[in-house]
Every structure is written in structure tokens, then in C-alpha cells.
């Protein structure tokens, strides 16, 4: 009997390991697609002759999905279960990608925005399902390790996407024109076709991923059910547990302050990533082509990937609250440098911000969960909704850039990071009454 139980346990462990490997591919996918918007912004600005404020509507449309879709997505996952919700999310993302060629055929920026909202809605559902599922697929005591590993793959997607996508949508066509010569209608059409190609390829990759997830859906369902039982035995909250209420989270001061910190951090990170291609392209910074500038943005997101590994090591020696305060303060100083420093130094300062962004999201998340008087589920829901900062702050940055220039616009992320640093210092002074928790939704 003992041997039989050991065999069953080993089989269950192997099934959960395989299921976790399957889910990790999803983290890579949504990381890749999310930062595809960065080089797309530079392309759309030129093609549709938009101001910075107008082109930042792309990020508004994309990140507004987090504010609108998060709560319905949680209810959807509770009804459909993990595998079906994931497959539905991937289907929605494919539909959004296929709407991009329709938008370019109609030559209408508004349809591009609608397509991006559809894509982001699918990603929101995907995150709501995949984040807690990754925490479930294995021993509860190792959930932090699994989530960190999944986040590393998410960061890998954000690191390579700008380079690959810029090579397609910012190459040739109207971007081959130099010396202030106006692009021809044929060159503009060619650039629109390059956007089509990029999103059709992405749609194809997502379709293959959806087929793969469909093929292992039974394994995912069994592993998730096993994980739910293990979480229950361990006394921790399962992913399918109570969703809590938004009102409950809003009654907790720490939950509200933590949500504000998430709002500001995501808004700052997205604002910098969105404008970085055009900033590095400037004659008074790197003076490189838009394609080359777009490829360099990979260094910004790659820094975040490296920083997560460095941050994980530092957290074994440094208090999380102090590490967050220092990282955000350095990011604020770098933004000040960008606004004041001359030439290439400003460009390298802007790229370096990514390294210090790396640990902010998970640390804000966990520090808030440890101090909030609301349930973990309610607090987590509010924090996820706060990602909508990625929709609103870039719009403000765009307006300032149109009036005073890109350098001056860095005052927005500067203030945001300063506030995050203050949040870190505040949490350092407030001793948590809860045990440290693993951020089951903290992959961004």
C-alpha cells in the first residue's frame, strides 16, 4: 500500500511539473505581446502623423482592458475553470491580432485601438487564469520559486519582442526615407503591410500555443485539482477561493495605498517604454534610425529581466521594503538625469531605468498583501485593477511631450517613482502582522 501511494505521489508530481512547464509558455507569450506595442507606437505615430498625446491612445486602449475586464475575467475563470478560460483567452487574442490587418486595410487608427483592446482583454483573462494556476502546480512551499521562474520567462518575452518586432515594422517602407524627404503613398502602404505581417505571425504563434494547451487540457485540469487539494491541506488560499469584494479592499488603507503605488509604477514603466524608441531616435540623443532605436528598447526590458534575478539574490540579505525604496529612488534619479543630461548619457540613463523597474511590481504586491486588512483575494483584485495606470499616465506624458518635449515629459515617471520610494519607506516603518506571502498575481 505504501509503495502504491508513493507511486501515485510521484505520478502526481510529474503531472504537475509537466503542467507547470505548459503554463510557463503563456507567461512568455503575454510578455512578448504586451511590449510589441512599444515599437508599434513609433510606427503608428509616423504612418498616421499623430501627436504624442494621440499615439498614446494605443497604451490607453491596451491597458484600459485591465480596469474593465479584470473582475469579469475572475468570474469567467470561476465558471469555466482554468484550461477553458486559457483557451478562450488565446482565442480572443488571435481575434484581436486578426483585426489589425482589417484596421490597416481601412486605414483607420480607431480600429487599431479597438484591436489592441481586444488583444489586451484576452491577455487580462489569461493573467487571471495563469497566475494562480502557476502557484497551484506543485508544492505550496515552492509557489514563490515557480512564480519567479514564470516571471523570468515573462521578462524574456518582453526583452526579445522589441528587437524582433522593430526589425519588421520599423524597417523599409516610409522608415527607409532619410534627409527629411516625404514618404510616398507606396512606402506608406508598405509600412502598413509590415504591421499586418507582424501581427499575422503573432496570431499564428498564439494559434499553435492554443492547440498545445488544448492537447494538455486534461493534464492541466487534473494538476490544478490536485494543487487545490494540496493548498487546502497546507492551509493556504486556493486560486479558486473567494474572490473577495472591491468594497472590502477599498476599506483598507494599505490596500488603497498599495494600489496607488502599482498604478504609478506601471504607468511610469509603460510611459518610458512607449516613448523610448522616439527618444533614442532624436538627433540630440543617439541619432539612430527608428528601427535601431526600437531594437535598443530590448535593453530596457532586458534590464528588467536581469534585475529580477539580481533582486531575488538581494532579497536574501536586504529587507524587501528598503530594497523597493532604494530601487524606486534610483529610478527617479535616472529620470531626472534624462531630463537634464546631454546627448547619449541621457539615452543610457533612460535604458537603465528598466534594471530598477524589475523588482517593483512583485514587491509592491507582496508588501501590500502583508499589510492590508482586507482578504488576500480582495486586495489582489484591487492591485490587479490598478494596472490601469499603464493606460492613463502615458496619456499625460504624451500631452507634456507635445507641449514641452520628451525630456520634460520624464517629470511624470520621476514623480511616480518618488512616490513608490515613499511607499517603500512607509512599509519599512510599519511592521506587518501577517506572514510573508507569495504574490500569486505578481507576474507583470
Descriptive labels:
444 residues; mainly alpha; Growth Hormone, Chain: A; disordered N terminus; disordered C terminus
How would you describe this protein?
The chain has helices at 2-47, 52-55, 57-80, 82-106, 109-136, 143-169, 185-215, 217-234, 246-250, 253-281, 290-314, 320-340, 343-357, 360-371, 376-385, 389-404, 406-409, 411-429. The protein has 444 residues and is mainly alpha-helical. It has one domain: Up-down Bundle (Growth Hormone, Chain: A). Helix 1 packs parallel to helix 6 (143-169), helix 1 (2-47) packs antiparallel against helix 7 (185-215) and helix 4 packs antiparallel against helix 7. 56% of the residues are buried.
Fold blueprint:
Layout: H1 2-47, H2 52-55, H3 57-80, H4 82-106, H5 109-136, H6 143-169, H7 185-215, H8 217-234, H9 246-250, H10 253-281, H11 290-314, H12 320-340, H13 343-357, H14 360-371, H15 376-385, H16 389-404, H17 406-409, H18 411-429
Helix pairs in contact: 1-5, 1-6, 1-7, 1-8, 1-10, 3-4, 3-5, 3-16, 4-5, 4-7, 5-6, 6-11, 10-11, 10-13, 10-14, 10-15, 10-16, 10-18, 11-13, 12-13, 12-14, 12-18, 14-18
